[in-house]
Automatic annotation (TrEMBL), chain A:
Protein name (Swiss-Prot/TrEMBL): YbaB/EbfC DNA-binding family protein
Species of the source: Lentzea waywayandensis
Gene3D superfamilies: Nucleoid-associated protein YbaB-like domain (3.30.1310.10)
Molecular function as annotated in GO: DNA binding
UniProt keyword annotations, A-Z: DNA-binding
Pfam families assigned: YbaB_DNA_bd
TrEMBL record, chain B:
Species of provenance: Lentzea waywayandensis
Biased composition (Basic and acidic residues): 1-16
Region Disordered: start-end pairs: 1-37
Organism superkingdom: Bacteria
InterPro entries in the record: YbaB-like_sf
Protein name (Swiss-Prot/TrEMBL): YbaB/EbfC DNA-binding family protein
Gene3D superfamilies in the record: Nucleoid-associated protein YbaB-like domain
Taxonomic placement: Bacteria, Bacillati, Actinomycetota, Actinomycetes, Pseudonocardiales
């Protein structure tokens, strides 16, 4: 009985933190879909209002799925696989079973953030053209 | 133990059927909330993640921290609205105490920003 109470306490406080595949948003959510923390990368805001809405929605859904999956895992660990299967038969499949991957969106995620601009490596000076001119087929 | 599980599963199936018939008649149960200036609008489901989060172009001026805080505030409100609407919709089908025990808490009835039917 004490183990059950302990499990209930753990499940009530459980959250999962997930970053969107494009790296612009991070969400901590409970299994009930409550957003406990939300971080937006400044580059996400540059992609426009629609992208912000879409990316945040996707990330909250991924974090919630992940939290639900962790709940199932904890329950299976505490009560045994048999009980976890019984619960799934009542409550429905865990995200691991019902989605091909609980931490990846089922539909294509929003557009990737543009890569950071990096300075080009300085070009190596190569004045030795002899090897090129030695092969006449390259000169045609 | 197996009998208990089967009994519980049967009860869940019965309630599920009653709920789904009810929801077919009333439409999907969601809650909606918006910022006063329309910067953020969230459509939430009871006991689940938000279904849709919409941000206005003007909201981008709030910056990443301000906008994140506003999204959290509105999402919380939308989910409370969705939970309250679930209670209101199902109070003839499911014992409200059971919904509360499942973590779907009923909020205040005065919702100003309206329900989405």
């Amino acid at each position: 009985m004490r183990a059950t109470e302990q499990l209930q306490r753990e499940l009530a406080a459980l959250t999962a933190t997930v970053e969107h595949p494009n790296g612009t948003c991070m969400v901590t959510a409970s299994p009930k879909g409550e957003i406990k923390a939300l971080h937006l990368h400044p580059s996400l805001l540059k992609q426009g209002a629609q992208a912000v809405g879409q990316v945040v929605t996707e990330t909250v859904q991924l974090a919630t799925n992940s939290a639900v999956q962790i709940s199932f895992n904890k329950m299976a660990l505490a009560l045994g696989d048999g009980m976890a299967i019984d619960v799934e038969s009542i409550a429905g499949d865990s995200p691991f079973r019902s989605t091909w991957n609980p931490v990846v969106a089922p539909k294509p995620p929003a557009e990737q953030a543009p890569p950071e601009r990096r300075q080009r490596a300085p070009r190596v000076e190569d004045t030795d053209d002899d090897a090129f001119f030695e092969n006449p087929s390259w000169l045609r | 133990m197996d009998d208990d599980v089967q009994r519980a599963a049967r009860k869940v199936r019965d309630v599920e059927q009653a709920v789904s018939e009810h929801v077919t008649r009333s439409g999907p149960i969601t809650g909606r909330a918006s910022s006063p200036d329309g910067a953020v609008t969230v459509v939430a489901t009871p006991g689940g993640p938000p279904q849709q989060i919409a941000v206005s172009p003007a909201a981008l001026r709030m910056g990443p921290h301000g906008l994140a805080a506003e999204i959290m505030r509105i999402a919380d409100k939308a989910q409370r609205n969705a939970n309250t609407r679930l209670h209101q919709t199902l109070d003839r089908v499911v014992d409200p105490r059971e919904l509360t025990a499942l973590g779907v808490e009923r909020g205040p009835d005065e919702d100003e920003l309206g329900w989405q039917r």
